[in-house]
Design brief:
The chain is built from 13 helices and no strands. The protein has helices at about 5-35, 40-60, 70-95, 100-105, 110-120, 125-145, 155-175, 180-205, 215-240, 245-250, 250-265, 270-295, 305. Helix 2 (about 40-60) runs antiparallel to helix 8 and helix 3 packs across helix 4 (about 100-105). The chain is an all-alpha fold. The protein has one domain. It comes from Streptosporangium becharense. Pfam families: EamA. It is a multi-pass membrane protein. One of its GO terms (cellular component) is membrane.
């Protein structure tokens, strides 16, 4: 008989490993770019592989459901437009600035979710709504510091834009995709995101297969480790621990990104930037807890929206 303590331990381990897998994603992407792979090509490969794995698993398990026309349209909007935009901005940031910095700036999104949720619900923003975003913005100010001539403004704006796009995706996605299981949602979101990046690559010429062969290995690593494995383990963790605790533990992700960047890429952040990152994460934690107080569970902050990620209910 499985004890509560054993289930909790399993949930903690699964969530932390998931966060580590997500945290390593910008580092894997950095190595992929080093082979000559473009952002668009990497994202198309990532989502194509992830979609194939999830949809094949659903097919084998007999869980491919018949979707309504409205559900198809919603998933196309969420995956093909909103999540694709978030991923493009985030991976562009990773290409231009430190992966650690990009991961820290992405965690502006829980505070933004608090504000956007209050606006959508037409409620008067209280301190629990405004506070997280103010704390996160204070952390952002420390991370950016004094504007220097060599600061990659485009990369910084891309990272902040990814956080904004992610928050918008989460607020909309949590309200329109609740009828589908997380695995079904993630599979179809990945499929539509693949289509978007293939079209984008063909139109802009960014879909280029002239990179070194080892690039495929890094693309597969991003897809299998930092997407499929990370999402599945988050589902396991959220089921065992509940969405609030799983969301808070998932903040181990930017910590992994910072450490991995330092160990593997030789990059470093200043003391002020590290302090700013800690403040950003404090605002993120407050945002998650504030959302939980309002709704009983936090806004999605895990894999289906992160896939890009949702704090999901497991489908078994």
């Amino acid at each position: 008989m499985t004890t509560v303590a054993a289930v909790t331990r399993r949930g903690v381990v699964a969530t932390l490993v998931s966060a580590a897998a997500f945290g390593l994603m910008p580092v894997f992407a950095f190595y992929a770019y080093g082979t000559g792979m473009s952002v668009t090509t990497l994202l198309a490969a990532r989502f194509a592989i992830a979609a194939a794995v999830f949809l094949a698993w659903l097919g084998v398990r007999g869980r491919l459901v018949r979707l309504t026309g409205r559900q198809w349209a919603i998933l196309a909007l969420l995956g093909g437009v909103m999540y694709a935009a978030q991923s493009l901005l985030y991976f562009t940031a990773v290409e231009r600035i430190s992966p650690a910095l990009a991961a820290l700036l992405l965690y502006l999104y829980p505070g933004l979710v608090s504000v956007l949720s209050a606006l959508v619900e037409r409620t008067r923003p209280g301190w629990s709504t405004v506070g997280p975003i103010l704390v996160s913005l204070a952390g952002l100010a420390l991370v950016v510091g004094r504007v220097e001539a060599d600061l990659d403004v485009i990369g910084m704006l891309a990272a902040v834009g990814a956080a904004v796009a992610y928050a918008c995706y989460i607020v909309l996605g949590s309200r329109v995709s609740a009828a589908l299981s997380p695995a079904v949602t993630t599979g179809y979101l990945s499929m539509f995101a693949t289509g978007s990046f293939v079209v984008l690559g063909l139109v802009t010429g960014g879909l280029d297969l002239g990179f070194a062969a080892v690039g495929w290995a890094w693309a597969a690593t991003v897809a299998l480790v930092s997407t499929v494995l990370a999402i599945v383990l988050f589902f396991v963790g959220a089921t065992a621990l509940g969405p609030v605790r799983a969301s808070l533990l998932s903040m181990f992700e930017p910590v992994v990104a910072v450490v991995a960047t330092w160990l593997l890429l030789g990059g470093s952040l200043t003391a002020a930037q590290l302090a700013g990152g800690a403040v950003v994460l404090a605002g993120a934690a407050w945002g998650v807890l504030a959302a939980a107080d309002r709704t009983g569970t936090p806004e999605p902050a895990g894999p289906a929206s992160k896939a890009g990620r949702a704090v999901p209910t497991a489908d078994g």
